[in-house]
Amino acid sequence: MNNKRYSKESDLLRLRLETGERFKQFRIKVDKTQNEVATKLGKSNSWLSSVENGEHNLLIPDLLLLCEYYGVSPSYFLDQESSVFGSNSIGNLDPTELTQLFFNKMNSILPVQVPIYMQSEYIYGEDIKPFDYVFWSRQRIATREIIGVQAQTNNMVQNPYQSIFANDRVIFQINTPMRVGVGAIWSFQRKGFENTNGLSIVEIKRKKNQWFYYNSGCPEDMPLQESQYIGMAIHKNSTTGFENINPLWQGFEPKDHTLKVDSEIKAKITKEDNWIKENLRIFK
C-alpha cells in the first residue's frame, strides 16, 4: 500500500473524484439505483449522489460501510496508484474487482439450500444428516434459521391449524420464540420410532400460563418444558407420487429406468403411442 499523504487540495479533489467514480461503477455493475443503495445503507439519496460526484469528504465509518456493501477492501481507496482511469482496468474496474462484484451479485440472487431431515433419524444427541434439500430465496430466508423435516406419521392430520400427513415436508424456524401453533419439540421414547428420543411434530398449547403439547399419538395434553422446544412451523410442502397416478407411466418404465438400445426405445415409444390412441382418443 502507498502511504503518501494527500496534502494538496488538488490531490484531495482527485481522491474524492476517483473514490466517487469507483463507488458509482460498483453500483452500476451490481445493477442498483442510487435510491436502492442509499436505502439499504440508511442514507439519503443526495448523500450518495454527492459521494459519487466527488463532492463529499467521506468519513471513515461511511467508507467502511460502502466497502462492506460492495465487498471491496478499504485499502484500495488509500492507494494513490489505484486509478479508475488506469490502463489495467476493464471499463473503470480492474479484473479482481469485477470478479468480486460478479460473485457478490450471484450470491445475492442464488437460492439457499434448506436441509430436509427424516423425522425418524432426527434423534437427540446424534449427528443428523439431511436426506434431501429444498431451495428458498435469500430474501425469503433473510434472518431466519430454518430446517425441514419429512413427517413420517399421521399424528398431526387432525390438528386445528394445518393437516400434516406422512411424507409432507415441514419447514420450521428455529430462531423464533415458542408460541401457540404447530411446532417441533424434543420428545422422549417416541413410540413410532423405536422409542428413540428425538423430534416430534406437535400442536403447542398454552393453558393457565403453562405450556402443553399434543398430537394423536398422545393420550392427552402433555406438559411441555421450554427446553424441549425446537422451532415453529412456517411452511409445508405436500408430496404426491405421480408414478401411481399418471396413467402414462404405468407399465412402461422398466424397473431400472434405463433403455440401453435403440430397439427398446422405439418399442417403448410405440407402446405409449398405442395406449394414448386407444385410451385417451387424442389421435384419430
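the 2nd protein, sequnce then structure:
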Amino acid sequence: MRNHEISQNFTRNKIEGQRRNHLSVLILYRLRRIVIAIFHFSFFILLIGCGGGKSLVKLDASDQFQLAMEAFDRGKYQNAIDGFKRVLFEHPGSHYVDDAQYYLAESYALMEDYAQGALEYQYLIRNFPESPYVEEAQYRLGVTYYRQSLPYYLDQADTHKAIQSFKDFLAKYPDSKYVPDVENFLFLAQEKLAKKNMENGRLYRKRKQCSSAVIYLQSLLEEYPKSRFRREATYLLGECYGMMGRKEEALKAYRELLKGVDGFVLKAREKIEKLEREE
C-alpha cells in the first residue's frame, strides 16, 4: 500500500513538473513574439524618422506637392527639394510638374545654391515653354547668375550670363511687371564690368602705359555710357591722349566734360587752357 502511494506521488510530481515546463516554454514563446513585434514597430518608426517625417506611403501628385509647399513656406528648403523631386519623378505626367520644377529652382536659389538653381530655371524654360512660370523663371535666372557672380577683379563669366539673361527678358517681356527690377539688375551687372575696365584704365594710366589705358577707357565709354565712371574715364582718356601727343583727341575729351556740373569741369578747363597755350 505504501509503495502504491509513493508511486502515485511520483507520478503526480512528474505531471506537475511537465506542466510547469510546458508553461515556461509557452511564456517564453509569447515573450519572444512580443519582443519581435516591438522590434518591427520600432524599426518602422525609425524608417519614418530617417525620412525626415515623410510617409513611406506614395502620395498622389496633389498631396505630395502640397506637402512640399508647406516645407517651402516654412523655409525648410531641403525638405521642399525632396518633395518637389518626388512630384517630378513619381508623377511626371501630372499638371503639377511645372509648379514643382519652378519651386525646386526657387528652393535651390533660396539655399544660395545658385549653380543648381540656374540649372533648374533653365530646365523649366527649355522644357515647359508654355508654363505660366517661364516669365518669372527667366527673370530669376538672371538674378541667380548675378548673385553667383564673382567680385569685379575676378572672372566675370557669370556677370556676362546675367546681362544676357536680362537682355533676353526685356526683349521677350517688354511690358512685364518685372521690367523695373530687371533694368536695375542689368545696370548693376554692367556697372561691375565698367568698374573692372575703370580699374584697369587707372592702373595703366598710373604706369604711364597709355596705349593700354586707352583700350580699357574707350571700352568703358562705348559699352557702358550710363556708368557712374564715365566722366572719370573721359578725363583719364584726355590725359592719355595728351601724353601720347594726340592733342585734338585730348581736347575733344576735355570739352565733353564741360557739359557737366561736377569737379571735372574745372579740371577740364585747366587742361584745355594749357593745351591751347601750347599752340
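Confidence is low (pLDDT under 50) at residues 1-15, 28-56. Residues 1-51 form one domain.
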